[in-house]
Amino acid sequence: MTVEQHTEAPPLAPPRAARRTKHPGRDPWAGALGRVLREGRPFLRARRGVVVRLAGWSALEFGQTFLGGYGVARALDDGFLAGRPGVGLLWLLVAVAATLPAGAATRGVFGRLADLVEPFRDGLVRRAVARALADALEGPGEASSGAVSQVTHQSEIARDGWAGTVLALRSFVFTTAGALAGMAALEPRLLLVVLPPVAVGVALFAATLGPMAARQHAYLTADEAYAGYVGQTASALRDIAATGARDEVSATARDLTLRQARAARQLARWSAVRIGATALCGRVPPVVLLFAAPWLLDHGLTGGALVGALTYLTQALAPAVHALMSVLGTAGGRLVVVLDRFTDPVPPPRPDPVPAARAVPPARSGGGAPRHEAELRGVTFAYGPGARPVVDRLDLCVRRGERLAVVGPSGVGKSTLAGLIAAVVPPDEGRVLWSGRPAAPVEAASVRTLLPQRAFVFSASLRDNLRYLRPGATDREIAETVGALGLGALVDRVGGLDAPVTPGHLSRGERQLVALGRAHLSTAPLVVLDEATSGLDPVTEARVEDALADRARTLVVIAHRPGSARRADRVVVMDGTHVVCGTPAELPALSPFYRELTGVPGRWPGTGNR
Ligand SMILES: Nc1ncnc2c1ncn2[C@@H]1O[C@H](COP(=O)(O)OP(=O)(O)OP(=O)(O)O)[C@@H](O)[C@H]1O
C-alpha cells in the first residue's frame, strides 16, 4: 500500500491564552505599569483621606528612625565619650522612647491599610464577575475560564501584592527620610559615602523590574492556560474516555505544566539578580562607610556620629531597602501583571480543547485538498507492552470517496484497525491522519462516524434517536434518511417518528438500523462500520451500505458477508501474517486467504463474523 501524500504536521501550537501578547514588541512592564497607574489614580484620589491618615501614622516611623541613630550618636559624643554617663543614658532613653509609639503606629497603619486594600480587592472581583457575565451572555459556554482564576487566585494575588507594596513603600519612604535626615544632621559628608552604592543598587533593581514583570506575565499566562484546559477537560471526561483521547489530553496537560515550570524557573533566575541589587543597597553601604571612616574621622566626623550612621544603615535603611525590594520584586511585580489582566479590555480567550495544529477541517474533495480521507503511516498497535502487535507498521490509505472493505479471520485485528482509522484506538507508533492532518479524537464527531456491532438506542422518540449526531436535522432530511435506508416499516411499527422507543422492544437488526440512520443523517464525511450490519438481511445490508456510500462519500466496512467485499472499491485482507490490499478483481490472485473466503457463499466461515 503506497503512501501518496506526506503532510508534516505543524509543531504543537500553544493554547491561545498562552500565545496572547497584548502589545507585541513592547516592554510589558512599561505598558502594564502605565495602565495600572492610570487605573489606580482615581482609586487613590477617591481615598485621599485614608492616604493622609496612613501618612500621619507612618510619620511616627520617621521620628523613630531619626531619633534612633541621633540618640546613639549624642549618647556617645555628649555622654559616655565626654565622661558624662548620665547624659549618655538620657540620650539612650530618648532613642528607646522613640520606639514606644511603634505599637500604636502599627495598629493605626494596619487599620488604614484595610480601608485601602479591601475596596481594592472588591473592585477587582466585581470587575471580573461583570466580565464573566458579559462573556456568558455572548453565548452558552462562552464564559471565560480565566475569569474563575481572576475571581479566586488572581484577586488574592492582587490584594496581597497591593497591601505589601503599600506597606513596604510607606515604610521605605519614612524610614529612609528619617535615616538621611539623621545622617545629614550628624555630618552631611556621610551622605557622600553612603548614597552611591544605594543609588547603584536601586538602579540595578529598577533594571530587573521589566524582565521580572515579563516573567510574571508568562507565569500567570501559563497558569491561566492550564486552569482553563483542566476546567474544559474536567467537563468533557466522558467524551475523552469515549473517543480514546486520554493520551492526547494528558500530553497537552503535561505540556502546559512544563510551560508553567519553565516560566517559574525563569522567574527564579531574575530573582537572583534582584537579590544582588538588594545586597548592594542594604549590605554594601555599612562596609563602604567603614572603609571611609578614617578619612571621615580626619575631616571632623566624631566617633558617636560614625556609630550613629552605622545604626541608621544597619538598623533602619538596610531592612527598609530589603523589605521594599523584595516586596516590589515579588508581590509588586505580580500586582502589576495581575492588574494588567484585570484592566485588559479583551477577555482572556479559552485555551483550545486540543492543540490548534490538530484541528481537523471537514474533509472536502477537490480544490487541492488531500486525496485521502484517512491514512495510517507506520502504525503499530498492541494490547499491552508485552503483547504481540495486532497491527504492525501498517501503511494504509483510505481514499476520499471510496468504499473500502476489511476482511479476515476472527481475532485478526479488524475491529482494532477500525478503531485506529476512527482514532478511537491511539497507535503505539506511527500516525493516523485525516485529510492529511493528525487525527484529533476530541473533534472526531465532525469527521467520522464509527458504528460498532452493538447498536445503542436510547429511550426517546425515533426522531430524537435518528438525529442524535445531527440535532438540527430537518423533517425533510429525516424523511430522506428513512426512505434511503428503508426505515419506513420500523417507523410504522413503533407508531411514527415521534412515538417513544423502548430499546428492549427492538430487535438487534432494528437497533442497528436506527444507528445506521444516525450515521446517514450525520454530516461526517467518513463512516466506519464495524460489523454494524450483522443483524440485517443481505438485501437490507446492501441497501444501507449503498445509501451510506452515496451520502458519506467514504465508507470503511469491516465486512460481515462476501457481498460487502464484492461491493467495495478495494478490500483489505488481514490473514494474520500479511495485510494485502487490492480491488475485488485483483485479490484472488494476490491472497490465497481471500480466494478461500470468497469461494464460500453466504456468511464467511471461520471469520468470526456472526
Ligand atoms: N481490549 C482488549 N484487550 C486485550 N486484547 C484485546 C482487546 N480487544 C481485542 N483484543 C485482542 O486483539 C486481537 C484483535 O482483536 P479484534 O477485535 O481487533 O479482532 P477482529 O478481527 O475484529 O475479531 P472479530 O472478527 O472476532 O471481531 C484479538 O486477539 C483479541 O483477542
From TrEMBL:
Residues 1-27, 347-371 are annotated as: Disordered. It comes from the Bacteria. Residues 355-364 have a biased composition (Low complexity). InterPro entries: AAA+_ATPase, ABC1_TM_dom, ABC1_TM_sf, ABC_transporter-like_ATP-bd, P-loop_NTPase, Type_1_exporter. It is a multi-pass membrane protein. GO terms for molecular function: ATP binding. This is ABC transporter ATP-binding protein/permease. It comes from Streptomyces halstedii. The lineage of its organism: Bacteria, Bacillati, Actinomycetota, Actinomycetes, Kitasatosporales.
